[in-house]
Specification:
8-stranded mixed beta sheet, 29% strand, elongated, single chain
Length: 306
């Protein structure tokens, strides 16, 4: 009779009460229960711990940080679990000494990193790292008096402005032929000649050898930077072109004169650095080979005087 009464009582029990035991657990094993809606345990009763469908223990409460994910695991917004980090958006909130608080963030939830040395103010010069070179971009250049200081000047792109008139010396200036570089010129200068003179010469010939010359000029030195010879004739021919007047002697080049039926031949040379004449007031000449019968030749030479 007692057994029938007990069976009837258990039948009437709710699922919640069926998981509650008013005495010690009758087993030494750790057991858990899965419920889509975990039950509420009343005061003074024991209850099963709750787990998910995989048997993993369900805990509640803040600050546990129990989430564990695989490194580089895929992330799906609105679905994947995470352990959140809290922050506060408040431009006026401050902490007093000895108190704790959360991190500060922007309206976009970006954490604010404060590098202010006083420790209690927002550092506002993030886009101007210190130390930095600051310049001005004036529409006109301002003269600075002797002994005075001034900010450096930049162009509209922030590039350092260097006046075209400024000369950067690359060799001793006490030597008359010392080289230096002027920023706005492709030619070098020295302490005697501050404005080098560009020189070109061109000559057209026929059957005989044709020459183009950088003429000798008093007190300056010719520098040849290159030459070219274009030639054709009735028949194919070869000869020697000669660059004369250069330092340490003349330079010779094998030249082909193309038959006119096959096109035009070109002999071209460029020198870097340019080659100086053997002395000041000395001409430099490039002379072609003779083209021969039906020949047409054009000779060009270019350089500068210094």
């Amino acid at each position: 009779m007692k057994k029938l009464i007990l069976l009837f009582w258990l039948t009437l029990c709710s699922p919640t009460l069926a998981q509650q035991i008013s005495g010690p657990l009758p087993t030494n094993a750790l057991a858990c229960a899965f419920n889509t809606a975990p039950p509420t345990v009343t005061s003074g009763f024991w209850g099963y711990v709750q787990c998910d469908t995989n048997g993993k223990l369900i805990t509640s409460g803040g600050g546990g940080g129990g989430l564990s994910v695989q490194d580089q695991a895929a992330w799906t917004q609105g679905t994947s679990n995470m352990t959140p980090q809290g922050c506060e958006f408040n431009d006026t909130s401050t902490l007093t000494s000895g108190t704790q608080g959360t991190t500060r963030c922007t309206t976009k939830r970006a954490q604010i990193i404060d590098t202010d040395t006083t420790g209690n103010a927002l550092y506002t010069a993030i886009n101007s790292p210190s130390p930095a070179i600051a310049g001005t971009t004036p529409t006109t250049q301002t003269a600075v008096g002797s002994g005075a200081t001034s900010k450096i000047q930049t162009d509209l792109n922030g590039n350092l402005y260097i006046a075209p008139s400024q000369v950067v010396n690359l060799a001793p200036t006490t030597t008359a032929l010392s080289l230096s570089t002027i920023i706005n010129s492709q030619y070098p200068v020295n302490s005697v000649t501050t404005t080098p003179t560009a020189v070109t010469a061109s000559t057209t010939g026929t059957t005989t050898a044709t020459a183009a010359t950088m003429a000798a000029t008093a007190s300056v030195t010719n520098f040849v930077c290159g030459f070219d010879i274009t030639a054709d004739a009735t028949a194919l021919a070869t000869g020697t072109a000669v660059l004369s007047g250069t330092i340490s002697g003349s330079l010779s080049y094998l030249q082909t004169v193309q038959a006119v039926a096959s096109g035009t031949s070109v002999l071209s040379r460029t020198f870097n650095p340019c080659i100086p004449a053997s002395a000041a007031n000395t001409a430099i000449t490039i002379t072609s080979a003779a083209a021969g019968t039906g020949g047409n030749t054009i000779v060009n030479i270019f350089g500068y005087r210094l």
